[in-house]
Amino acid sequence: MEEADVVIVGAGIAGLAAALALKIVGVRALVLERGEGLRTTGAALGLSINAWVALDVLGVGHKLTAIYASCSKAILTNVENRSIQEVSFATSDKRAREFSAVHRKALLEALAEDLPSGTIRFSSKVKSIENQSQEGSEFAVIRMDNGASIKAKALIGCDGVHSVVARWLGLRPAVDAGRWAVRGLALFPEGHGQNPVMRQFVSAGQRAGFVPLNDKELYWFLTYVFSSKGEDIPHDPELIKREVIDHLAKDLPPEYLSMVEHSELSTVTWSELLYRRPWDVIFGTLSKGSVTVAGDAMHAMTPDLGQGGCSALEDAVVLGRHIGDLIIRNKRLVAGDQLAEAFRRYANERRWRVAGLITASYLSGWVQVNNSGWLMKFLRDMVFYKFLYKVVLSFREYDCGKLPTVLKSEKNQRKID
Q: Tell me, what DSSP letter sits at residue 301?
């Protein structure tokens, strides 16, 4: 049976960031990824101030800031009455970047290239997990689909909304948010001519928008209320694009339709929105012995605040901080009760933070697309956009802390490795 100090399931944002945080505090992790390469589903994502703070702690923020445009504000248009409102992305911390849309692949590559060679093991599907006791300490035994087994001091599930690790912990499955999302990247070889601001268009039952990545590419999205379970959803990217242009977005401004028309087909996706109920996070088991979760495996949320990837980066730093503190106290990564306690502290620190993000994201989407009469429209236009939206956006201003400095003498490094 193969042995490892830490096994991370999933090479998405949470998994790679967690591996990098652990590397910084002196622990080499083994990342198991079921796919044949880095995940690129989703094409792009927005990174708010909290994500940039975490990326700077991980030492990779500078790789992205020079490439992607920084957006200073969002312009919100009510399609029904043509009213326009502006929301600033400015933050109290003038040193930090406010908001940028980046290629998901570029973010993953920025994280992965700072990891030691051999950290990521592709085409590795986890079949089952079990606990094993040895000399008073608990270990996680990971059974692979190919028959192999790995014994680890610690197991971190970063394997997404349908996480095998979360299911082993007993977390309830994510639930349907009652909405679907279509996303894609638009490419304008001669330049798109858009200012570096996010544009959003809201009408009854849907919310759409776009944001520049650079002077030639824009990320566009559309979320809408849909009662189908997927039977009527086309899978061909060209058919998805035509459905958006001809039906879903037909009443939106021509500039939005132009974005969709210029989409790279390989980036166009259509997916159901799922989220983990906040009370399942607050009262659920987020860690058990030497096993815990991060990213969507812990706190799947709707994309209405753009905090899914951002909070996953927060997770990585907080987890690395608690593991680093453990190593400082013991001069090495120890299995058993102390590791379990470090995981409990990590889970408790994250529990209320991510439950709040899940709630704010869901309510933000609900109030913006709900189509239940004049009262909801009043709440959306006169209460949410004028007063509450800025409060909700303030959730982005969060400092996940610093990673501790771990002594890395040759002797201690041998103990950790």
A: -
Average pLDDT taken over every residue of the chain? 88
At 302, list the tokens. Answer: 């709707």
Structure tokens at 200: 């959003």
> For residues 221 and 269, is the Cβ–Cβ distance under 8 A?
no
For residue 374, which phi and psi values (nearest 5 degrees)? Answer: -65, -30
370 compared with 298, residue with greater pLDDT:
298
Q: 284-311: buried (b, 16+ CB within 10 Å) or exposed (e) per residue?
A: bebbbbbbbbbbbbbbbbbbbbbbbbbb
| Of 362, 370, 305, 368, nearest in space to 176 by CA | 362
Residue 276 in 3-state DSSP? coil
Q: Which residues contact 129 (CB under 8 A, 6 or more apart)?
A: 140, 141, 142, 143, 155, 164, 165, 168, 291
In the predicted structure, residue 292 carries a pLDDT above the cut 80? yes
Q: Distance between CA atoms of 329 and 321, rounded to whole angstroms? A: 13
What CA–CA distance (Å, rounded) separates 226 from 315?
31
Task: Tell whether domain 2-71+100-175+275-368 is in CATH 3.40.50.300.
Answer: no
Six-digit token pair at 383? 């209460």
Burial of 378 (0-12, 13-18, 19+ CB in 10 A): exposed
Owner of token pair 């349907």? 176
Q: Count of CB atoms within 10 A of residue 230's CB? A: 11
Per domain, the residue ranges of the chain are 2-71+100-175+275-368
